[in-house]
């Protein structure tokens, strides 16, 4: 599979996962009060990011930004926080608190 086909396949998967976010809060982004517990570009979808927060000791909030059509930057960015400093509305991101 060439790079373009891989990129399109990854984007379709990300959009499908983002569209089925379910219980996650959509359209918000959390910012940490202090340093992040984890910053990952390997997780796919808001559900995987939330699950990582549930499994990470001390995690109280998570924020997921899906990427589009750029396989060099990974499928998305998952940020886990011990303390949430601010929540902002965002048309593209997903977030939640544990």
Automatic annotation (TrEMBL):
Signal peptide positions on this chain: 1-23
Assigned keywords, A-Z: Signal
Superkingdom of this protein's organism: Bacteria
Keyword Signal part of the UniProt annotation: yes
Name the UniProt record assigns to this protein: Apple domain-containing protein
Organism this protein belongs to: Paralimibaculum aggregatum
């Amino acid at each position: 599979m060439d790079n373009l086909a891989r990129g399109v396949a990854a984007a379709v998967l990300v959009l499908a996962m983002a569209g089925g976010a379910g219980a996650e809060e959509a359209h918000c982004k959390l910012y940490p009060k202090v340093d992040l517990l984890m910053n990952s570009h390997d997780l796919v979808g808001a559900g995987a990011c939330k699950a990582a927060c549930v499994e990470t000791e001390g995690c109280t909030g998570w924020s997921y930004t899906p990427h589009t059509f750029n396989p060099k930057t990974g499928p998305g960015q998952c940020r886990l926080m011990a303390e949430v400093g601010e929540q902002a509305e965002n048309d593209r991101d997903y977030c939640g608190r544990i």
